[in-house]
Amino acid sequence: MSTTNQINDTERNQSTTTDLAEADSRKCTHWTRDNGRQFITDPNGDVVNIARLTAYAEYGDAIYDAHAHHELPLRLIDAPDFLAVLSETEHGRFHGADPEPVMVDGIPRLRPGGEDE
């Protein structure tokens, strides 16, 4: 008899049952692109960007149809304080304008609209 675990996938709106013994033998892999962006590949082969995963944990469903925007000019820091949720259109328009960073508490941040909380 195997032990099973019910897993709910909220993004795909479906539920699956996984044999825990089988799940224990499979692993997620963490990897980094040449440009420094970090990703995780799950045992099913699905790939998620760490920034997007962090934004989902911070903002929930708001990220579902949106982009995770890095507010630091060095777009490799995926901490929640440096991520914002923007629509694809807003994100493209923002970066297309080649914005200058705004100093916030001594940290240069790429803020849409130049907000400085």
Plain-language structure description:
With 117 residues, the chain is an alpha+beta fold. It has one domain (4-111). It has helices at 20-25, 50-59, 88-96; strands at 4-9, 14-19, 29-32, 38-41, 47-49, 67-70, 83-86, 102-104, 107-109. It has a three-stranded antiparallel β-sheet. The longest helix has 10 residues, at 50-59. The relative contact order is 0.11.
**What is the H-and-E element order?**
EEHEEEHEEHEE
The count of β-strands is 9
Largest sheet data:
3 strands, antiparallel
Number of domains: 1
Considering DSSP H and I runs of 4 or more, what fraction of the residues is helical?
10-25%
Strand order of the largest sheet: 3-4-5
Q: What is Rg?
A: 18 Å
| Spatial shape | globular
| Total number of helices | 3
Task: Annotate the secondary structure layout.
Elements: E1 4-9, E2 14-19, H1 20-25, E3 29-32, E4 38-41, E5 47-49, H2 50-59, E6 67-70, E7 83-86, H3 88-96, E8 102-104, E9 107-109
Antiparallel strand pairs: 1-2, 3-4, 4-5, 6-7, 8-9
